[in-house]
Write a structure and sequence with these properties.
By secondary structure, this protein is mostly beta strands. The protein folds into 2 domains: 2-87 and 159-167, no CATH class; 100-150, no CATH class. 11% of the residues lie in helices and 31% in strands. The protein has helices spanning 70-74, 137-150, and strands spanning 2-4, 10-15, 20-21, 32-38, 41-47, 61-62, 65-66, 77-85, 100-101, 103-104, 116-117, 127-128, 160-167. Strands 1, 2, 8 and 13 form a 4-stranded antiparallel β-sheet that branches. A 3-stranded antiparallel β-sheet has the order 3-6-7, with no helix packed on it. The radius of gyration is 25 Å and the shape is elongated. The model is unreliable at 162-173 (pLDDT under 50).
Length: 173
Amino acid sequence: MITLVNPVGLYMDHIDLSGWEVPDGIDPHDCVNIIRGKPGMIERMVVEVPAGSSRFVSDITIGGEPVRYGGQIAECITVKLVGGATKLHSVQNGLTPCNTRCCLDPANASRLRDPIGWDAPTPIGFIDALGAEPPSAATLVAVSAHLALHLVSAPRPPIRPLATRSRARRLLA
């Protein structure tokens, strides 16, 4: 079985500094700081010249072009999803009962409204999303039985990390 690890997210894997030049002999690696995360799973990274330098980020060149836009830096970053793998049928995830439903504004259907209970009326100006219907009594009984069965299950094997990578490519003329 292959799945995404928790917490699910896109992570920066690394930044390719080949082709980067910084004046005054400053090493490009000194201009990149991981603020949140760790190497290989970076959540937030800052590009700035070292403190005390009289230079600016716009003095850095990438492929001979001065940095003017964040997109120039983003093209050097490899992003990845982190997954996990384990033996087939070794994980028996239980069913989860559906206690709420979602609504959306048909005039602005770009996102679902916060979930509301089955017994609450649909808010004025909204419609039920995704063909919302409350679960039947038989479904609730089946879910409850399934959850009770898996409360006494055997310990689960560890999930090994697996990385999938995607990289934006720079086109240099």
